[in-house]
C-alpha cells in the first residue's frame, strides 16, 4: 500500500529513526490503517481519517471514554492528531474471531460466543443506564428512517447494481412496501446501546480475551441488533445449534424479555441486517470494484432465503426475492 508524502513525513518526524510501517487491509469505511513499528516500543495502529476533525466533538472520543468506563474491552487510544485526521491506538494483533475460528475448527465456539454475548449485555444494561443524555449515540438511532435507508441502499446497489435486475413497476412497489413494513416493525421506543457492527471481524482474539474494535458508530437501537449481527454474521458459517445456544444464553442474561416475541424480533432484525450487508457487498463489488466482498454474498443470500421461507408472513414477497435475488 502506497503512502502519500505528507503522511510519510509525519511518521518520520514523529517516530524515532528505524521506525517502519505497513499498510493494513481496511474495512468498507473511508478510513485507512497502518501498523507502525518503532524500534524499541510496542507496535501501534495508525487510523487515518479522510479529513481533519475537532477532537472534543469527535464521536470516537466520547464513545471510547464511555466504553472504557463501563468495562468494554476496547483498544487504548495512545495519541491523537486531529489537525491531520490521525489517531494512534493500541495494536491488538491480527487474529479476529473470524480468523481464529476459520483457522482452528476445534476451538470452543460456544465459549467464545458466550463471552461476546456478555459484552452485548454489558452494553445494553450498564452501557445504556450510564450513557449521558447528550452522548453521541443518543443523537443517532437505529430507527425506522435508518433501516429504510439501508434497505433502499440494498435495492440500489445489490438488486439493481450487482444483480442487474430490472423489476417492473408493480414489483418495485412491492419491494418498497415490504421495506417500509420491515423498517417500521423494527423501530422500538425502548432502545439500548448498540455497537452497530458487532460481528466476528470486529472481535479480536488476544491473550487477555476478546477485545472489541470498530465501535465509533455506536448508537441506540433494538435489543436484537447486536445479537443478530453476531449470530447471523455474513462473514462466517455458524451451526444452527450455536445460534440457538446464543439466543438462549442471551435470554438467560436479559431477564424480562418475552422469548416468543424476542425470537420474532430477532428474525426480522437478522433479515434487515443481512439485506443491509448485501447492499454493502453490492456497492463494494459493483461500484467500487472490490471483488473481495463477493465471497460473502452466497452465504448471506442463503440466510435471507432461509429466513423468508421460515415465516408465513413472507410467502407473498418470497417469489419477488426468488426471481431477482436467488435465481441465476
SSE series:
HEEEHEEHHHHEEEEHHHHH
Per DSSP E runs of 2 or more residues, the count of β-strands stands at 9
Indicate the percent of residues in helices: 40-55%
The CATH superfamily title of the largest domain: Aminoglycoside phosphotransferase (APH), C-terminal lobe
Average pLDDT, all residues: 95
Provide an overview of this structure.
By secondary structure, this protein is α+β, with helices and mostly antiparallel strands. The strands form three sheets. It has a five-stranded antiparallel β-sheet, with no helix packed on it. The model has no long low-confidence stretch (mean pLDDT 95). 49% of the residues lie in helices and 12% in strands. The chain contains eleven helices and nine strands. It starts with a helix and ends with a helix. The protein folds into two domains: 5-90, 2-Layer Sandwich (Phosphorylase Kinase, domain 1), CATH 3.30.200.20; 97-326, Aminoglycoside 3'-phosphotransferase, Chain: A, domain 2 (Alpha-Beta Complex), CATH 3.90.1200.10.
In a nutshell, what does this entry contain?
The protein has 328 residues and is α+β, with helices and mostly antiparallel strands. The chain contains 11 helices and 9 strands. Strand 4 and strand 5 (86-90) form a beta hairpin.
Amino acid at each position: 500500500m502506497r503512502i502519500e508524502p505528507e503522511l510519510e513525513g509525519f511518521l518520520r518526524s514523529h517516530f524515532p529513526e528505524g521506525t517502519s510501517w505497513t499498510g493494513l487491509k481496511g474495512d468498507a469505511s473511508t478510513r485507512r490503517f497502518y501498523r507502525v513499528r518503532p524500534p524499541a516500543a510496542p507496535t501501534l495502529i495508525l487510523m487515518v481519517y479522510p479529513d481533519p476533525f475537532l477532537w472534543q466533538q469527535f464521536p470516537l472520543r466520547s464513545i471510547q471514554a464511555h466504553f472504557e468506563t463501563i468495562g468494554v474491552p476496547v483498544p487504548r487510544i495512545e495519541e491523537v492528531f486531529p489537525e491531520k485526521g490521525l489517531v494512534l491506538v493500541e495494536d491488538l494483533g491480527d487474529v479476529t474471531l473470524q480468523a481464529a475460528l476459520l483457522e482452528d475448527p476445534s476451538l470452543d465456539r460456544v465459549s467464545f460466543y458466550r463471552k461476546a454475548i456478555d459484552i452485548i449485555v454489558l452494553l445494553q444494561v450498564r452501557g445504556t443506564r450510564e450513557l449521558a443524555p447528550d452522548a453521541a449515540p443518543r443523537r443517532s438511532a437505529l430507527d425506522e428512517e435508518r433501516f429504510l435507508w439501508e434497505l433502499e441502499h440494498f435495492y440500489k446497489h445489490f438488486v439493481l447494481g450487482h444483480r442487474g435486475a430490472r423489476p417492473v413497476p408493480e414489483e418495485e412497489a412491492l419491494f418498497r412496501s415490504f421495506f417500509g413494513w420491515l423498517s417500521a416493525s423494527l423501530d422500538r421506543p425502548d432502545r439500548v446501546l448498540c455497537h452497530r457492527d458487532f460481528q466476528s471481524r470486529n472481535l479480536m482474539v488476544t491473550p487477555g480475551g476478546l477485545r472489541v474494535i470498530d465501535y465509533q458508530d455506536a448508537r441506540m437501537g433494538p435489543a436484537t441488533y447486536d445479537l443478530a449481527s453476531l449470530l447471523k454474521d455474513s462473514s462466517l458459517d455458524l451451526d444452527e445449534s450455536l445460534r440457538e445456544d446464543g439466543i438462549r444464553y442471551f435470554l438467560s442474561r436479559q431477564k424480562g424479555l418475552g422469548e416468543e416475541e424476542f425470537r420474532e424480533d430477532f428474525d426480522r432484525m437478522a433479515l434487515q441486517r443481512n439485506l443491509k450487508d448485501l447492499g454493502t457487498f453490492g456497492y463494494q463489488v459493483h461500484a467500487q470494484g472490490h471483488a473481495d466482498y463477493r465471497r460473502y454474498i452466497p452465504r448471506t443470500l442463503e440466510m435471507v432465503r432461509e429466513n423468508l421461507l421460515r415465516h408465513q408472513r413472507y410467502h407473498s414477497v418470497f417469489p419477488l426475492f426468488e426471481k431477482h435475488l436467488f435465481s441465476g
